[in-house]
Write a structure and sequence with these properties.
By secondary structure, this protein is an alpha+beta fold. The protein has two domains: 1-68, Chitinase A, domain 3 (Roll); 72-225, Mago nashi protein (2-Layer Sandwich), CATH 3.30.1560. Helices cover 19% and strands 29% of the residues. The chain has helices at residues 12-17, 130-138, 140-147, 200-204, 206-220; strands spanning 26-31, 52-57, 76-82, 93-98, 103-110, 119-125, 152-154, 160-162, 169-171, 178-185, 188-196. A seven-stranded antiparallel beta sheet has the order 6-5-4-3-10-11-7, covered by helices on one side. It has a two-stranded antiparallel ribbon with strand order 1-2. β4 (93-98) and β5 (103-110) form a beta hairpin. The chain is globular and about 50 Å long.
C-alpha cells in the first residue's frame, strides 16, 4: 500500500511508526489501541482495545502524492465518497471497489470524549467476488446520467461547488449536496461526477441499493452514525 504520512490515510500508529525506516528494511510496529481501533475495534474482525503488532517492509520513499502507473492494479476501480459536515448524524465514508474483487470501506469512527467530527479512520475490507465487483463497476455509474439526469453533475460542467475548508461538495445551481462517483483505470478517470445524495430516484436505484446493502452493516455499528 501507498501511505501519505502527511494525511490520515492509515491508522495513526502506522504513520508514527514508519519514519526512520530505510528502504528495504523491515520493522515490527507495536500499536496501542488509542493509535489503532480503540475501544470500538472493528466488529467481527478486531476486538475492542486490541494491541496490534504489524510487520512493515519499506519498499520505496517518494515525493508527496507521486503515484506511478504500477501502483494501480489492472482493471477498473470504483470509488464513492459521501461527505459529512458538523450537522450530520451519519459519518462520511468512502467505498472503494476493485474489478478483481478487492473492496474496502473507509470511515471516521468517533472516539468517546472527543468533539463531533473527531475520531480515527477505520478501514474495513468488504468481501466481494470478482464477478460481483465487475458487475457493480461495468455499467451502472455510466448509466446514471441517462437515468436521472437532473441529479447528476459532470465534474467539469462548471456546476460543482467545492466548499472552502470542507470536504462537502454541492451543485451550485440549487445547493444540493453531492456524493462523488468516480471510476478510474490505471490512474485515469473513466467517469467522474457528483450525484445529488438525497435524490429519491438515486437512493432507490438498484446501483445505490446494492452499495447500501454492502456497507450498511458496518456503518450501523459506528457510534458516529447513530
Amino acid at each position: 500500500m501507498v501511505i501519505d504520512l502527511g494525511r490520515r490515510e492509515s491508522i495513526a500508529g502506522l504513520r508514527y511508526g514508519i519514519p526512520g525506516m530505510r528502504v528495504g528494511g523491515t520493522r515490527e510496529i507495536v500499536i496501542s489501541p488509542h493509535l489503532a481501533y480503540g475501544e470500538v475495534g472493528i466488529p467481527g474482525r478486531i476486538p475492542a482495545n486490541a494491541l496490534l503488532r504489524c510487520e512493515v517492509e519499506l519498499l520505496e520513499i517518494r515525493e508527496h502524492s507521486a503515484l506511478l502507473p504500477q501502483d494501480w492494479l489492472p482493471g477498473k476501480i470504483l470509488m464513492l465518497r459521501r461527505s459529512q459536515d458538523s450537522n450530520d448524524q451519519q459519518s462520511g465514508w468512502t467505498f472503494t471497489v476493485h474489478e478483481g474483487g478487492n473492496s474496502w470501506l473507509s470511515f471516521l469512527q468517533s472516539v468517546r470524549g472527543k468533539q463531533q467530527g473527531q475520531g480515527h479512520l477505520s478501514q474495513v475490507p468488504i468481501p466481494l467476488e470478482a464477478d460481483e465487483s465487475a458487475e457493480l463497476i461495468r455499467q451502472p455509474p455510466m448509466d446514471l446520467p441517462k437515468q436521472i439526469p437532473e441529479a447528476c453533475v459532470g465534474w467539469n460542467s462548471g456546476f460543482i461547488d467545492l466548499q472552502n475548508g470542507s470536504a462537502m461538495i454541492k451543485d451550485n445551481r440549487d445547493g444540493a449536496r453531492c456524493m462523488v462517483i468516480q471510476v478510474r483505470e490505471t490512474g485515469r478517470d473513466v467517469c467522474l461526477m457528483g450525484v445529488h445524495q438525497d435524490n429519491l430516484e438515486f437512493l432507490d436505484c438498484a446501483f445505490y441499493r446494492t452499495i447500501e446493502r454492502l456497507i450498511g452493516p458496518y456503518l450501523s455499528s459506528d457510534p458516529a452514525s447513530t
